[in-house]
Amino acid sequence: MSRLRGKKRAGATVEMAVVTPLLVTMLLGIIEYGWVFAVRQALVSAAREGARTAALPASTEEDVRASIDQVLRPLGLTTYNVQMTHATPANPTETIRIAIPYSDVTLVGGFFGPTNYDLGATCSMRKEGLD
């Protein structure tokens, strides 16, 4: 009876050794996905805030960058790129595009695949006072 109990315990140990890496990988994947989702939502919010600021009649590029920074800085996101397309009489929309390298965002490096692309968001709003 004692031999049988020892074999069951050894079997459980082997099963745990096989299953643990899979479970840890799944856990890391869930955490990574959640973080990237949060970053993506922050980029959308920052682009919206930047476009809202840019749509004001007396706004400057510094004002736009400050409003974007106000959204992204609390998450520790500081290495982003901002592209602004300013309104003209022919096209009265202000467009803000924010991009951040995925390699600067990922928590697990290249464990789940390549990291040589950008996460980004774009928002356009009509400029006030351009009639």
Give the uncertain stretches in residue-range form: none
Number of strands: 3
Rounded Rg: 24 Å
Averaged pLDDT: 90
Annotated CATH architecture: 2-Layer Sandwich
Q: What letter string, H or E per element, gives the SSE order?
A: HHEEE
Q: Please give the CATH class.
A: Alpha Beta
Give the biggest sheet: 3 strands, antiparallel
Would you spell out the secondary-structure blueprint of this structure?
Layout: H1 2-54, H2 61-72, E1 81-85, E2 93-101, E3 118-126
Antiparallel strand pairs: 1-2, 2-3
Helix pairs in contact: 1-2
Characterization of the model:
This protein has 131 residues and is of the alpha+beta class. It has one domain: Pantoate--beta-alanine Ligase, Chain: A,domain 2 (2-Layer Sandwich), CATH 3.30.1300. Helix content is 50%, strand content 18%. The protein is built from 2 helices and 3 strands; from the N terminus they run ααβββ. The protein has helices at residues 2-54, 61-72, and strands at residues 81-85, 93-101, 118-126. The chain has a 3-stranded antiparallel β-sheet, with helices on one face. A hairpin with a 7-residue loop joins strand 1 and strand 2. Helix 1 packs antiparallel against helix 2 (61-72). It is rod-shaped and about 90 Å long.
